[in-house]
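Bench log. Compound arrived from synthesis this morning; before running ITC I wanted a structural hypothesis for how adenosine monophosphate sits in the protein. Inputs:
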Amino acid sequence: MFNLVKGTHDIILNEADKYTYVEQTLIQFAEFYNFKEFRTPIIESSDLFQRSVGDSSDIVRKEMYTFLDKGDRSITLRPEITAGIIRSIVNNKLLALGDYPVKAYYVGPCFRYERPQQGRYRQFNQFGIEIAGVTSPYRDVEAISFGYFALKLLGFENLKLKINSLGDDESRKNYREALNKYFASYVDQMCDDCKERYKLNVLRILDCKIKEDQEIIKNAPKISDYLTDKSKDYFQKVLNSLDELGIEYEIDDGLVRGLDYYSDVVFEFHYTSSKGLSYGALGAGGHYNKLIGEIGGPKDCEGCGLAMGIERLVSVMEDDGLFSNIDDGIDCYIMPLSQEFQPNALNILSLLRLNGFKSEVSLEGKSLKAMFKKALKLNAKFALIIGEDEIKTNSIICKNLSNQEQESILIEDLVRYLDSQIDAEEEHHHECCCHDHNESDKDCCCHAHDDEGKHCCHNQNEDHECCREKKGN
Ligand code: AMP
């Protein structure tokens, strides 16, 4: 037996379905925002992260999986994906013609040597977006609104968006000076990490989680008092636009983020599950005004982005029962009554699968009772039974496992029969069942009506009958 490496976890079976569901939902939503997929290598040269994430960040100082390869090159397993995406955009000269912006999305594993705890792994998965070539504060709003509405789409209702501005270079230079002055008289009493942060990048001290240090940090100067007019104006435009879009936020002037490349707007999405558990930030991001130039791209080209931790999304969604719409069942389970009918079963199985029915077969020589038990376990819609009579008549017994009705169907009619059964079932599920009903509590009575006062919903079934998001059983 081999144990998992500390801080890693297997994502298997139903759990993997949940990951796929979350990732697919985010990918589809990113496509609506016109982001394009980028797949970059998991290994990159170490100096890419030293330059981008920054030598003073905890990630570069303590958390990177770095090794020398057989050619003596220093290689790092990516601790985050933004740096690789920007490197790829630059290497592929996607910004060279000034055709801004380049909009990328990505999903994949990241590696950080952190202390494993709830919502914190050493290998974890991130989904993220980057907008390279930002020329307006409303691109930052686009990134934030993507994150906000994507999380809503996944079912997160009581989201808390925390936002701050780190200002431009000048704002941060002035702020750093003020912080240096303030912490000078306290740094000797602070933790070893803070002593080092004081030397490397005093801003990092604001991230310290140690209680005694937080007491000191509480009274430190605030970035908002050091923003240049330009940065203030930029931040205000972003906030006004969020107001317009109905995106609620909370300004948190202690929010600095753990990666050195951020400037101006930074933000995090927080959520507390119905069990009262908080897993840290579900997603976070911000604006970067120097990163693209530092990686070799056009000097004044700015960008912004956001990354979400899939592990955290899945954990909170599990806690809050937000996966109820995943259908992990199958359509058909084929049950040959004797081993000699297995070749026939296999032909039918192939016919079904090629016609889009998710199907499985019993080839283990089980009793009829055991096969029914397995069909239930697989959450099958239909049990298809093949016995001697069925072989002779080129037919099959179809048992609908939701209403227990069964019929003998000719193989040549099987696909049509199953289609009509499944359609009928879905029709039943799609009957209108709104929150609001009219006085007789019978007929559909939606909020929206058309000009003539008739029902007029967004979604309609094929017969154009009312069919809202909320469906009846
Ligand atoms: P960052 O790249 O640090 O800005 O993090 C972006 C998001 O990735 C966070 O909000 C988390 O959801 C997720 N994340 C970061 N580190 C970890 C980790 N060690 N384990 C799980 N998720 C993480």
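What the model suggests: The first helix runs from residue 13 to 32. The chain has 15 helices and 16 strands.
ITC booked for Thursday regardless.
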